[in-house]
């Protein structure tokens, strides 16, 4: 913009000079050469450079802030999407199981209805004091000995009862129950430096000592629930000098527990928390730093930062 205005000004001066309107005389009117000599383009350059530098600094700061926010939102969205996908799979399995259960109950009811004789059936006629009876069915008349018919009815009743008992046992067995052992324990092999222990940083416990059920993943620090049930989760972390941290236990995108630790000068502090939660198969459980985090998260031979859990029921 400044360059364009300067060129227009010089052009007007030049036109005036060539037309004889601008001449160097005794009145002190400057010539074109005097005007050019008096101009110094570098007078405005430092100020513009400072302004541009300030703008670049502001733009880079905003870009860094937006990038950090987008990264956090992306991470939260991916966790939420994964939890919803797991929930959908669980509901689909539940619907399929309920459909099987409905079909099973309908077949059992149909079986019982076939056992019960219709109300309009013709009753057996006993005549002439004999044990011969006449009974009517869909194929016509037939004769049975009364004693044999009673035994047949008794066998049908016992058969129907045993079938119902078997159906009830099968129904109980189809309800998904599991008593399999699920447990894990892992800790960090080294400390997490302050420049990485930023808010919402997922702690990765890379040394795995116990992983029954293969639910814990040391590459991501996430425990993926292998079976629905009630679980106990425990985590512990250590701060060094002048460090403070809040750590959260997350189930998918929801916070289930948080603990804070603030260490004074020349001191060390270990903080521990426990959570009991009912979680579903496929849920993600992990530990991360909260918004209030500063300093190094230590893990060494004198104190470990750890994460553990087991299925209670």
Automatic annotation (TrEMBL):
Q: Which domain of life is it from?
A: Eukaryota
SUPFAM superfamilies recorded: TNF-like (SSF49842)
GO cellular component terms listed in the entry, alphabetical order: extracellular region
Q: Provide the residue span(s) of the region labelled Disordered.
A: 112-131
**Which InterPro entries is this protein grouped with?**
C1q_dom (IPR001073), Cerebellin_Synaptic_Org (IPR050822), Tumour_necrosis_fac-like_dom (IPR008983)
Residues in C1q domain copies: 177-313
Subcellular compartments: Secreted
What PROSITE patterns does the record tag this protein with? C1Q
**Signal peptide bounds:** 1-20
Please provide the record's keywords in A-Z order: Secreted, Signal
Q: What is this protein called?
A: C1q domain-containing protein
């Amino acid at each position: 913009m400044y360059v364009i205005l300067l060129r227009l000004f010089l052009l007007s001066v030049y036109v005036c000079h060539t037309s004889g309107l601008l001449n160097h005389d005794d009145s002190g009117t400057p010539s074109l050469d005097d005007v050019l000599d008096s101009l110094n383009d570098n007078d405005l350059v430092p100020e513009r450079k400072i302004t541009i530098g300030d703008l670049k600094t502001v733009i880079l700061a905003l870009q860094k802030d937006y990038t950090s926010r987008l990264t956090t939102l992306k991470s939260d969205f991916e966790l939420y999407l994964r939890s919803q996908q797991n929930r959908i799979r669980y509901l689909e399995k539940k619907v399929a199981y309920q459909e099987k259960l409905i079909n099973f109950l309908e077949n059992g009811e149909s079986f019982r209805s076939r056992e019960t004789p219709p109300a309009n059936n013709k009753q057996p006629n006993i005549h002439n004091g004999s044990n011969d009876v006449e009974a009517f069915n869909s194929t016509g008349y037939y004769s049975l000995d009364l004693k044999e018919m009673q035994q047949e009815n008794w066998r049908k009743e016992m058969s129907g009862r045993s079938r119902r008992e078997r159906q009830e046992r099968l129904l109980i067995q189809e309800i998904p129950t599991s008593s399999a052992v699920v447990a894990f324990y892992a800790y960090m092999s080294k400390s997490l430096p302050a420049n990485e222990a930023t808010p919402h940083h997922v702690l990765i416990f890379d040394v795995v000592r116990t992983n029954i059920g293969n639910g814990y993943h040391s590459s991501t620090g996430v425990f993926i629930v292998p079976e629905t049930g009630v679980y106990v989760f425990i985590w512990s972390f250590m701060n060094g000098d002048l460090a403070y941290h809040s750590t959260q236990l997350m189930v998918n995108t929801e916070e289930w527990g948080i603990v804070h630790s603030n260490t004074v000068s020349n001191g060390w502090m270990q903080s521990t928390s426990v959570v009991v939660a009912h979680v579903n198969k496929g849920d993600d459980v992990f530990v991360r730093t909260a918004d209030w985090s500063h300093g190094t998260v230590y893990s060494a031979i004198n104190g470990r930062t750890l994460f553990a859990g087991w299925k209670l029921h």
